[in-house]
Task: inverse folding
């Protein structure tokens, strides 16, 4: 398949199964393919998981399922080198490809050569939370730093004449994420005279309506400007749910629900349809502070006007997604992957239930201690899984209660926050 150029914007998702559980992973890949996913990613922590991935790919291909499979690598460059011979694409994170930058560059050169020989693509997938100190001390922990971090790696690709590359610059903060992609898009055009395909997404968006609205604002703003070739709506839910959400954002933009489109009100079939269209229509202007409010008169759901309750609920959620007004806690939750060792979705829902009164507090719920603390970005508090059945609680980036039993963790988190804000 092709990503970029004239190809339609594709939709991706990622398995949340253990990659070593071959049966469950194959099943989830099949469900994703049936639901219309164009690409599927699996976490690939080490060489053992590369072997598992190889078996998963063989089973899928033997059953005639051709969906491209991406190996998701963090921390172990050698796993990327091995995965490049197995997967269709290898995602590496510049922030943690190797500890030492010179080693990272040497390993990346090796990776390029293997990918060239094998016809494997690379995604340079940076997340705001994983920017290294080498970058933040020079450019800042901000969209410019994100853009510069990625440009270094793209220059290596250009120098080696390797162009089978996609790039992402995700953040859970819609403002940061949109600015980073805009900066990168302009920098690529200016320096290279072309743009590498962009994989666009709001990371750790959480679940439910708030996550969909946040994703529609971030992804929809960029797609409306012609930026973005493949998307992932990251949800702390069944990964299959990410596919209709992604398609809904693409459709809303294509139907003219953008600030420069033909619409000034929303005609939706149901509330789900409404939130995507309204978010891509008004979200970009709120995000860029071109407007301070929007008028829902004239918008309809299944031919009727919105109820007062629907209108208030949606306005609050959109304002918060655009970082304009915080009426609820701000949740940052990873979608979970093969590294997650607890029931992330139900835990996240329980945390939401118990903390719903804490408007404006940023609370992260993360699946693993390997990536979680780095990826929870600017959260005030973090609930991070640490091994099976245990959790570490963070205040900002500092662990304050380590390795506590999972059954006690939500109450302890609440105690911690309430003591702080008294
Ligand atoms: S933070 Fe979540 S999505 Fe990221 S690696 Fe850990 S479990 Fe997976």
Result:
């Amino acid at each position: 398949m092709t990503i970029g150029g004239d190809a339609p914007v594709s939709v991706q998702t990622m398995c949340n199964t253990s990659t070593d559980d071959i049966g469950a992973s194959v099943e989830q890949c099949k469900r994703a393919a049936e639901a219309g996913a164009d690409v599927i990613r699996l976490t690939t922590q080490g060489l053992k998981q590369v072997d598992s991935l190889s078996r998963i790919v063989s089973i899928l291909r033997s059953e005639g399922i051709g969906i491209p499979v991406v190996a998701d690598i963090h921390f172990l460059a050698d796993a990327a080198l091995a995965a490049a011979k197995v997967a269709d694409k290898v995602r590496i994170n510049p922030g943690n490809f190797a500890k030492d930058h010179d080693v990272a560059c040497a390993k990346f050169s090796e990776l390029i050569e293997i990918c060239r020989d094998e016809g494997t693509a690379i995604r340079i997938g940076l997340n705001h939370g994983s920017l290294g100190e080498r970058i933040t001390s020079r450019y800042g922990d901000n969209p410019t730093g994100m853009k510069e971090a990625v440009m270094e790696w793209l220059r290596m690709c250009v120098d080696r004449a390797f162009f089978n590359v996609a790039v992402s610059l995700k953040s859970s903060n819609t403002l940061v994420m949109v600015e980073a992609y805009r900066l990168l898009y302009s920098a690529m055009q200016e320096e290279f005279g072309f743009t590498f395909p962009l994989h666009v997404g709001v990371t750790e968006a959480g679940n439910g309506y708030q996550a969909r609205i946040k994703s529609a604002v971030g992804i929809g703003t960029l797609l409306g400007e012609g930026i973005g070739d493949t998307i992932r709506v990251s949800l702390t839910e069944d990964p299959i749910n990410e596919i209709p959400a992604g398609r809904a954002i693409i459709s809303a933009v294509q139907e003219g629900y953008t600030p420069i489109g033909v619409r000034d009100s929303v005609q939706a079939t149901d509330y789900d349809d409404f939130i995507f269209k309204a978010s891509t229509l008004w979200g970009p202007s709120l995000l860029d502070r071109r407007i301070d409010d929007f008028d829902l008169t004239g918008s309809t759901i299944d031919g009727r006007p919105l109820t007062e309750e629907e209108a208030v609920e949606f306005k609050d959620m959109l304002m918060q997604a655009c970082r304009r007004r915080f009426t609820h806690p701000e949740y940052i939750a990873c979608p979970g992957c093969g590294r997650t060792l607890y029931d992330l979705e139900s835990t996240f829902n329980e945390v939401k239930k118990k903390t719903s009164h804490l408007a404006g507090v940023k609370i992260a719920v993360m699946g693993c201690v390997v990536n979680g603390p780095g990826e929870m970005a600017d959260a005030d508090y973090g609930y991070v899984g640490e091994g099976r059945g245990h959790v570490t609680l963070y205040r900002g980036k500092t662990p304050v209660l380590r390795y506590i039993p999972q059954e006690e963790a939500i109450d302890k988190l609440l105690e911690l926050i309430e003591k702080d804000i008294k």
In short: The pocket of iron/sulfur cluster is lined by residues 334-337, 339-340, 366-368, 370-372, 375 (CB under 6 Å). The chain has a mean pLDDT of 96. The first strand starts at residue 10 and ends at 14.
